[in-house]
Amino acid sequence: MQTMDGRADSPELEQLYRDFDANSMAPLWTQRDDLMPPVPSPKAIPHLWKWRTLYDIAKRSGDLVPVGRGGERRAIGLANPGLPGTGYATPTLWCAIQYLGGHETAPEHRHAQNAFRFVLEGEGVWTVVNGDPVAMRRGDLLLTPAWNFHGHHNDTANPMAWIDGLDAPFSYYTDVGFFEYGSDRVTDEASPDISRSERLWGYPGLQPLSEPRRLPSSPLSAYRWEYTDRALAAQLELEDEGHPATVEQGHAAIRFTNVTTGRDVMPTIRAEMHRLRPGASTPPRREVGSSVWQSFEGSGTVVLNGEELRLEKGDLFAVPSWTSWELHSDSGGLDLFRYSDAPIIERLGFNRTLTAPPAG
Ligand SMILES: [Fe+2]
């Protein structure tokens, strides 16, 4: 051992360090570099998961592992190689592929963790949120905010897979989790095209007077692809007409918002959809906080801390805090879904962004 200024050991100093250990004490000067790096230095690493591989393995789980009470979900977490033993995509975000076979039911439960589902492809599953059946279809974002009962049932003979996003790692580190079982079957097996939540909350700019409160999470349980797609298309059309609408040239983006506040859909998770025109690029950016992206349609590349990775439909990638990221679209354009822990980071005042000018 050494002192802070590098002086050599003495028997007294060695005894001092033994006494630190024996009395459950940890001197800052041995940890300062790790605790207070000059810039964020995440243990999580930038990582890409190929949808083709995830889907194939999830399908095999469907053949081998029954879904039911106890395990609750046939959901397989994307485990960041920099966070071994955790099954977490980032320090705050869980991301899993969930697979439900034909006519299977995932039983109802509720938990303090906030959750959503995002559908890459397929349909035929209804997620029942507090007794309200919500159809799940391609491109839809479905919310299950904290403490709402939810289960899923597949009304068809065909399997369906989607991604689940949760704040489970954040909840785990902060010890805020509660969990309760609900009905073994979903409480309503109906399969309506449109949920009661959408009928009450799904009209732009119109809040029902029966529910005038501002709620911490959005009461709208489904954000339909039809509207997301039209909103992104309109931004690019407006850009063509010379009006301000896009984030930057050729890059349209929307944020899914809490319909009672205009803020993020849930207190811990931000969700967005991005569309790059054919051949468009984004400048390199670094942000405090972590995110997970899924390539939804089209193809292109993402550059993470200088490493270029190919993106095909469904591929997922984790972007840890302060990782430099930039996107490039191929000739067919590129749509991407993104979720992040930005609401936590911003509410606590830790947010910083660094955007580099486009190269060349
Ligand atoms: Fe759940």
From TrEMBL:
Top-level taxon of the source organism: Bacteria
GO MF terms, alphabetically ordered: oxidoreductase activity, acting on single donors with incorporation of molecular oxygen, incorporation of two atoms of oxygen
Domain Cupin type-2 residue range list: 101-164
Gene3D superfamilies per the UniProt record, alphabetical: Jelly Rolls
InterPro entries: Cupin_2, GDO-like, RmlC-like_jellyroll, RmlC_Cupin_sf
Keywords assigned: Dioxygenase, Oxidoreductase
Keyword Cell wall biogenesis/degradation among record annotations: no
Name recorded for this polypeptide: Gentisate 1,2-dioxygenase
